[in-house]
Structures are given as C-alpha cells and as structure tokens.
Amino acid sequence: MADPDSPVSGRSETGFSLTTPHLIIGEQSPELPHEPQMNYLDSPEFLDNNWHQKLGASVELSLENGIDESQVKNTHKTPSVKFSTICQTFEQELSPEASFELPPPPKLEENSLEDCFPVTSTGVGCRNGEASYIGDGGVPEIEDIQSPMDICDSEVEGDYKKLVKDYHSQRKELEEMRILLEELRKENRAKSGECNEAWKSLKELQNELMRKSMHVGSLGQVKEKGKWFSSLRDLTRKLKIMKMEQIKLAEEASAYKKCLVDMKEMSSTINFTVNQQIDLNEHLKAKFVEGAKERKELYNKVLELKGNIRVFCRCRPLNTDEIAAGASVVVDFESAKDADVFKDTAPFATSVLDGYNVCIFAYGQTGTGKTFTMEGTEKDRGVNFRILEELFHIIRERQKLYRYSVSVSVLEVYNEQIRDLLGSGNQAGATAKRLEIRQVGEGIHHVPGLVEANVSNMSEVWEVLKTGSNARAVGSTNANEHSSRSHCIHCVMVKGENLMNGECIRSKLWLVDLAGSERIAKTEVQGERLKETQNINRSLSALGDVISALATKSPHVPFRNSKLTHLLQDSLGGDSKTLMFVQISPNESDLGETLCSLNFASRVRGVELGPAKRQLDTYEYLRYKQLAEKAKLELKSKDLQIKKLEETVQGQEVKIKERDFRNKSLQEKVKELESQLLIERKLARQHVDTKIAEQHIKNQEEHIKAPIRPPLGSRPLGSLKNVSDPTTAPVKDQENSIQPLVEKNNSKAQTQVPFRPMNEFVKYIDATEKENNPDMVEQSFLPSRTGRASICPIARRMPALPAPRRNSLIPLPSTPNTTQLPLQFLPLAPFSADKKDDIDDPEANCLPRQTPCDSPKATITKAGSRKISSILRRSIHKRIQPKSPTQHMKRGVNVGMEKVRLSIGSRGRLAQRVLLSNGRRPGPKGMQKQTQKEKEKERGWNIGTVGRG
Ligand SMILES: Nc1ncnc2c1ncn2[C@@H]1O[C@H](COP(=O)(O)OP(=O)(O)OP(=O)(O)O)[C@@H](O)[C@H]1O
C-alpha cells in the first residue's frame, strides 16, 4: 500500500496513486473551447510529433519495480480535474485509495436566472463573464414576457426573445449534460470498483508472477548450478590427479611385473643350476665320504689289529761311563739296534687328525733314554717333534678337505702338582701358578688357565717345545735330576673341520715323558727326595692300576688316583690309542729295574682297549647345527619376503583395478551431471520461451481485440448539436476510434522493439565451455534482450546500459530506457486542466487532448471500456503473466499492465538482476534485504507519475 503521508500517494494532485490504477481525465473540460487543430495526447497524430522527447522523464512501470518516490516528486506535475466554470469548477484531490468520484454537481438555484438575467434594458448577461445555471422556474417563457413598451422597443424585444430561446436551448443542453454527468458518475463508480478489483487481481498476479519467477529461477537451479560446476571442476581435477596416479601406478606395476618375471626366470635358472651342482656335489661327497670312511675303517682296523695299546721297548746303549766301568750288557735283541722307532709311530698322527685321542708316553728307569726318545736331540729328533711334523704334513695334505687348528700346551706334574711350563710363572723368581683339572664334558677334561700356544708350522712347534724345556730346567738347579723326578707332558690339541660335510673333530695328543721309576730301596733317598720318589712311584703305580683296570675291564678305572692318570684319562680309556715306550738299560746292574719295567710293559701290552672312538666335536656340530637352523630361518624369511613382495604386487594390481573402476564411475557421474545440467537448462529455456511466446501472442491478441475508447470531453458544451448530428460527428470521431491507439502503437512497437526469440539467446548458451568461461559474456544482445516495454505515461530516452549477466530468472526491475520501446508503451502525457498555462507552455502543445467528458461519443467509449474491462478481467482470471506491456485507455482511465523482463542466458553463471532505471544492480541478497515497503513501491503502479519533470 502506498504511504499515506506521501504527497504523491496520499494526496496526489492528479488523483492517481502509485499503487492504484488511475484515471486520466482529458484535457478538454466542458468549458474549454473545442480546438479542432489540437490532437489528443494519445492519438497517433500526436504520437507522431514525438512529443515525448520533449518531456523530461519517464518512468517505466512494472510489477517488479515501482517508481522512486523522489523521482515521482520531481518529475511530474499532477493536473487537477476541472470542469467548466460555467457548470462548476472544482479541484478535487483524489485520494489514491479512493475511487475516482466526481463531486456532486452543484444544485441549481431556481431563481438564479432572475439574478443572472435581471430584467433590465441591457438584457440578460453573465456575471463576471461566467455562465450560471438558471432554474426552470426562474426563466420566463417567451410568451410570458410582456413587452415593455416604455423601455423596450421591438428590436430589444427580439433580442430578448432570442436570448430566452437560447436560454431554453442551453437549459436543455444543461439538463442533458447533467444527465450525462450523472451517468458518467455512475460509470465512474463502476469503473473505480473494477479498477480496484483489477488492482487486487494485479497484485495477485504480481505475487503469482513473483512465485513463477522464483519457480523458474528454482527450476534453473542457478545457485546449485554454480555448485555443480565447482564440484564438476573439483571432480575433474581429482580425476586428472587420479589418472596421473593411475598411470604412475600402472607403470610401477608393469615394472614390478617385468622385474618379477625376470627375477623368477633368474631364480628358476639359478635354482636349476644350483640344484644340479648340489646333486653332483652330493653325489661326489657321498662317494668321497664313503671312500674316506672305508679308508678310516681299514686304517683303524689295522691299528686295532696292531693293538690300541702298543708297547715299544727301547734299550739304550751303554754310555761311555758304563763302558769304562766295564758294565756288562744283559739285554740282547736284534731290534734293539734299530733306531727307526718312529716308523710305527707316525700312523698315530693320522689317527689324531682323524679325531682319535692318542697318548704316547715313555716309561722306564732314570737315565734309560725316555727324554732322549721323546724329545731327542737337534740332530736326532724325538717322537714329539716327529709326530708333530707328521701331523702338519698330513694337515697340509688335507688342507683342501679339512681345516685344522693346532695348539700346544706344555706342563709338568711334580709332587702331584700341575705346572704350566708356557705360563708367565715359569720365569725366574715368579711364583708358579697351581692348576687344577676340570671336567667340562662327558669324558672331556680340561685344565683351566693352561696356556695353549697355537702353532701352524714346525718352527713354531720347535719354539714352543724349546720354551717348555727351558722352563722345566729353570725350576731346578740340577736340570737332569729335576727332569727325572717330574712328569713332563705335552698336550697337542687338534681341531679339525671337514670341508666337505662340515664334520668337526676335536682330539688330543698326549706326549708324556714320565719320571724315572726307580725303587726307593735302591735309591735309599730321604727327606725331600724320598717325597719326590714316593709321589713318582704313586703316580706310576696309579698309572699301572689304571692300565690294570682297563686290562681287566673293571667297571671302575681309578683315573683320579694321581694327577697323571687324571690328566691322561681322555687318552687312556677305551676311546683312545696308546703307545708306550718302555725304556730299559742294558747294564747288568740295572737288571732288576729292567725287569720291573718289562713286567709293567707286559701288563700294558695285555690290555685290550677295544675299538677306539672318534672324538667328534659336538660343540662345532651344535654350532653348525645352529647355523644350519639360522640359515633355514633366513631362507624362510626370504620366502616370506618374496611372498610379501608378490602380495604387494598383487595389492598394487588390485588398487590399480579399483582406481580404474573408480575413475570410470567418476567419469560416468560427470557425464550424468553434465547431461542432467543440459536437460535442466533446456527445460528452463523451453519454459521461459514458452511463457514469453504465450504472453507475446496474448498481448498481440489483446491489442488487436481491444477497441479504442473515444476520448471524452472532446467537445465543448456548445458543440452538442454536433452530437445530435449523426452524419457528421461519427465521421470525425471515427478517425480516432476506428483505429485503436494500442493497435497503431503496437504496429510501431513491432517495428521498434523487435523481441528477439529466445532461440537467439539460447544459441549462445548452449556451449558448455562458455558456461564455464566467465569471460565469454554475451555482449551484443544484452542491451536489446531485455525486451521490456513500459506503460509509463512519459518516456525518457536514456542510454541503454550494458546489461550484466543475471543470476536468476527473477523479473528485473523496470527501467526508464524507452529508446526501443513501442509508442503504445510510452507514458502518457500529463494532464493539465489549466488550459492557459498549457497553451502558453510550448510543451503543452505536445500534451494530448483527452476525450472530453461531454463527448457525444460517450456511448461508444462506454462500450469500448466495457470490452477492455472484460478483456482485462479475463486476463486477470487467466492469470496471464504479462510480458509485453499493454495500455488500456477508457475515458481518461489509463490502465497499464506491468511488464516483465525475463532474461535467460546466464550460461551457468549466477544471473543478476538488471536495474536500468537508476543504474543500480542489486544482487539477490540486496533484493532480499529490501523492505516490504520498497518492494511494493518498486512493484507498484506508477502510471502517470513520471515524465512530468
Ligand atoms: N738310544 C740311545 N742312543 C744313544 N744315547 C742314548 C740313547 N738313549 C739314551 N741315551 C743317552 O743316555 C743318556 C740319558 O738319557 P736320558 O736323559 O734320555 O734318560 P732318562 O731316562 O730321560 O733320564 P731321566 O729319567 O733322568 O730323565 C743321555 O745322555 C742320552 O744321550
């Protein structure tokens, strides 16, 4: 509703309202003289004069945009409605809400004629030159007038009668005019009601149009379309990234596949070759092992046949002292002269390297040559050197098949004490370290802290042997005596590994130079020497006991009865080989000792140790077993790694397949979205095109069907006779009424406003690329695509601003741009009741002459107005959305239809409303923030309120 305080809407001088349909009262009031040369404002002739160009402003009316109040204030003049001063002059300021009602005619005074026409000599005249109503009773009839003979002559009488006659005629005409005026009032009331109804309907139409527009906008889903495009771009970008990743993964997978195939081929080839070699080696190994085993068995069988405890008796020759003393030789055997003792000793070296424990010791009386046999001299090497030499010789021979390590320890047992001859305690002044025997395993005894000198060649062996011999001599002032009262033991420890089958052995070679076995009674020693002799005899007796136990296969062997037997436990048992040298003296004086030694040798010789047992190195065996298990675990881990690698490759392949599937699904989704978008767009275009085409057709039909209502008030009161003349008046009026203004103007509109078909716009927006390209904004058709028309009474030429893109299909606000509008849509000229002012005003000549109210063509106008009203009602009831503006005029009532601008071609961008009237371009948010009052003003009617400036 209009603001009642507004001077325009509340107290409009024209009686028009911004929000209500208005009535236009023609310029020709009854008292105005008829000027045939003046044209009506809305006549085609007048329009041809381009009078609107002289007008200062025009306002375009539409439902969506009203006229700014300030603009209305400044740009129009509101005429007042005036009727003839003869009849009545009034200025009625009509309220915008109230219907247009003419004020009631003034009551005629019955006696006014007498006042107006006093019976004087001057006759009837007008007061102040204005006509007055004369009552019926106050007007004398011609017959009733008495001729004043004294004051009037015949000439005056004639004038008087003529005046009376004119008075009567004018009185009749006045009555007719009153009747006509009453009819017009009634018709005015009816039209006002219709206009109100039409206004209400138009408001409903406006709301409906807004809903439709919003619906169309929602159909387009313009906002969502932007989101869709952004989502499409994101999806496209993600798709590209995923495609790149897919390509990389595919390349990696193919490389993995190739590598895997190559690796498989290589591994299969290598495995085949390795398997072949393994089979061959296994075959050779088996053969070799069988051969070696056979050799060992045969060799061991030979040794067994010879006896595991072999006893050699060696008799030294008489020395120079004995020869000088004339000692006799009691021992005589041919082999005693054979010095080649070591020939049968060398095979024990092979047994040591094969893993057998060997014990070689020399037993005999003091000075019989035990040390000479075991150690020898530099020119004549003893058993120790020779057997070690033989040992390293065999090692060299077996170096391709076996790997050996040899270490040598030198110790002595003196008075039942073990002494390390290679240790630091053997130096002068040093305290000898006491060593103990420990059993570290089943049948394995070890002396903790005993120095083990690693040797790899005979020079090293010789150095070790020499060191031990020197250490043994340091401990006594008399080296010969000391050596006779202690057991000197060389322990050669051999560790061997069979390189073919990994078999390891750990064996010992005991080389023992025993103390002299003299009888105590013979030596008659006392004190410390007796103690030494007792210890020596005890140890030798223990050795005899052990050998006796072994010979009798006693379950208990007393190895621990002495340090000597305890040390030699590993090599005196049934698992070892033993060689004993029995040293005897050939001197007759030593015969008893020689017999004792031979008896002892006889007992040892009779011992059957049984088959020897190989000393396998269980430690190395366990170690290699652990290594084998570790290798198996590593092999399993490698297999697991290979399996994991294969699983990884398979997983990558699965991922690639999943990504391929995902890419395909995304591509299909993108295609679906694009197709859906195109369909939505086409539907929106078709909908809008259909609406536009329907509205255009209906508007054309309405313009064709709507007859023009003859203007009212085109004649003065005095021209009533022309009305009565049916032969002349209709001819002239026919010129204005035959061709409706709307129709004429519509023909011009068709030439001036070529409504472009929407297909022209659609062809620019079909390309999807242009949708996404913001730079591709339509340019050429934007100013003309508006297709807007105005029903404003006055148009003003304004340069057309380039229409920006729209965000929606919401109808745009109106614009005063009328450069391309058809003339029937141009605003009407303002009505001015003041004729003088209008005449003086040069622009007033351009104003239309409205149909006077007293026009004899009132009946025709009424019929035309009824037709227009019926059309209007039908159009309202049909709720047609008027796109093209229409103009309906009926007896000064100018009913304008809103125009709707529908613009399409957002092409994927948010459309924007275009406000051409004031250059504003409010966005959707700005439009929403408008107050209801402003919306009503903008969407309201503003007919006749513009262009007056
Ligand atoms: N077969 C032999 N040929 C020549 N000389 C020998 C032989 N055997 C021993 N002799 C000489 O006999 C002497 C004594 O020898 P030897 O020291 O080896 O005897 P022994 O038994 O070790 O004495 P002891 O018990 O005191 O150690 C040495 O001078 C040595 O040269």
Automatic annotation (TrEMBL):
Molecular function terms, GO-annotated: ATP binding; microtubule binding; microtubule motor activity
Bias type Basic and acidic residues, positions: 931-940
CDD domains attached to this UniProt entry: KISc_C_terminal
InterPro entries: Kinesin-like_fam, Kinesin_motor_CS, Kinesin_motor_dom, Kinesin_motor_dom_sf, P-loop_NTPase, Vik1/Cik1_MT-bd
Ranges where the record places region Disordered: 1-22, 707-735, 917-949
GO (cellular component) term, any one: microtubule
Residue positions binding ATP: G364, Q365, T366, G367, T368, G369, K370, T371
GO biological process: microtubule-based movement
Keyword vocabulary terms for this entry: ATP-binding, Coiled coil, Microtubule, Motor protein, Nucleotide-binding
Record bears the keyword Nucleotide-binding: yes
Biased composition annotated in UniProt, kind: Polar residues: 9-20
Pfam family, one: Microtub_bd
Coiled-coil ranges (or none): 164-194, 628-683
Protein name per its UniProtKB record: Kinesin-like protein
The organism of origin for this protein: Cannabis sativa
Organism placement in taxonomy: Eukaryota, Viridiplantae, Streptophyta, Embryophyta, Tracheophyta
